[in-house]
Design brief:
Enzyme class: hydrolase
CATH class of the largest domain: Alpha Beta
Strand content: 5-15%
CATH superfamily of the largest domain: Uracil-DNA glycosylase-like domain
Shape: elongated
Catalytic activity: Hydrolyzes single-stranded DNA or mismatched double-stranded DNA and polynucleotides, releasing free uracil
Number of strands: 8
Oligomer: single chain
Structural class: alpha/beta
Keywords: 4Fe-4S, DNA damage, DNA repair, Hydrolase, Iron, Iron-sulfur, Metal-binding
Organism: Stigmatella aurantiaca
Largest sheet: 6 strands, mixed
Distance between the termini: 138 Å
Helix content: 25-40%
CATH topology of the largest domain: Uracil-DNA Glycosylase, subunit E
Protein name: Type-4 uracil-DNA glycosylase
């Protein structure tokens, strides 16, 4: 015996009722039930079976269920669409920073792989040409390039033979040098004069200058920014003179010219090279006054310099 199926309208109502119940269950998270779930499932199953057509019969087409209206969208402030940014051009590779090393007293010095070339483009100096000391001094002017200018009395540029074969480079002016505007005229200067004479030279034969041209307050060590401000003028002085040998007196002169943070106790006595010029690092005369026992080592360093010039020299001071 075949049971006639219910009308398509009734089937649609059942499906809609089931859909609403499932939506409610989804919203409530299954935490509450209108009726016993097992009983409801059995009833719904029996009702659905009764609606199935007999075997072999074409199934009745149920009208499609109307979709539930979507909840209204939450109002949102209108944001104008920004224009798409242009694709940035490829960035140039950032140059690698030179390594930084600490000197013996904690001073940080840039230490590139090799010393930079002579600066030939100082203002007032024609690039690529050998400047004169007068041109460099005029370019230095009444220098205000670092904070040392606020406490100085005189710029201490340098003194001696402008075509000297031998140049001595010290650290910076002291009190007496600041008053007179001449390098190495105090107690350390007297010792340096004796050292030069013992080598078979006079002060008029050589050229003497410092890394910084103004006196650091209280004769303190020059600071990195002060050295950086003065260094182009020192290098230009050496370019103008073009000596055969440079004697670097103390760690600041040696480390600045060589771009090497090795302590002076290890640098001294070893021939180095600055822009093709032989360079001998040795102790500063001020240090030798405080440590007289080191004079023997300094004299040994100077004797190596004397051999370059074929000098016999006198007794060490």
């Amino acid at each position: 015996m075949n049971e006639s199926p219910e009308s398509p309208e009734a089937l649609g109502e059942v499906v809609e009722d089931l859909r609403r119940h499932l939506l409610w269950q989804e919203e409530s998270g299954g935490r509450a039930l209108l009726v016993d779930s097992a009983k409801l499932a059995a009833e719904r199953s029996a009702s659905l079976r009764s609606m199935l057509p007999p075997r072999g019969a074409a199934p009745a087409k149920a009208p499609p269920a109307e979709p539930a209206p979507a909840p209204p969208p939450v109002p949102r402030a209108e944001v104008p669409r920004a224009a798409a940014p242009e694709r940035p051009a490829a960035l140039a590779p950032r140059p690698a920073s030179p390594p930084v090393a600490a000197s013996g007293n904690g001073l940080l010095l840039d230490v590139p792989q090799k010393a930079p070339p002579y600066p030939g483009a100082l203002p007032g100096v024609v690039d690529g040409e050998r400047p004169t000391l007068d041109e460099i001094r005029r370019t230095l002017g009444d220098c205000q390039r670092c904070k040392l200018c606020t406490g100085r009395k005189n710029i201490v540029f340098g003194v001696g033979n402008p075509r000297a074969d031998l140049v001595f480079v010290g650290e910076g002016p002291g009190e007496n040098e600041d008053l007179k505007g001449i390098p190495f005229v105090g107690a350390a200067g007297d010792l340096l004069t004796k050292m030069i004479q013992a080598m078979g030279f006079s002060r008029d034969d050589v050229y003497i200058c410092n890394v910084v041209k103004c006196r650091p307050p209280g004769n303190r060590n020059p600071e990195p920014d002060e050295i950086a401000s003065c260094e182009p003028f020192l290098r230009s002085q050496l370019l103008a003179i073009q000596p055969k040998v440079i004697v670097a007196l103390g760690k600041f002169a040696a480390q600045t010219l060589l771009r090497d943070s090795t302590p002076i106790t290890r640098l001294r006595g070893q021939w180095r090279e600055y822009q093709g010029v032989k360079l001998m690092p040795t102790f500063h005369p001020a240090y030798l006054l405080r440590s007289p026992a080191e004079k023997r080592k300094a004299w040994e360093d100077l004797q190596q310099v004397m051999k370059i010039f074929g000098k016999q020299g006198g007794a060490r001071t």
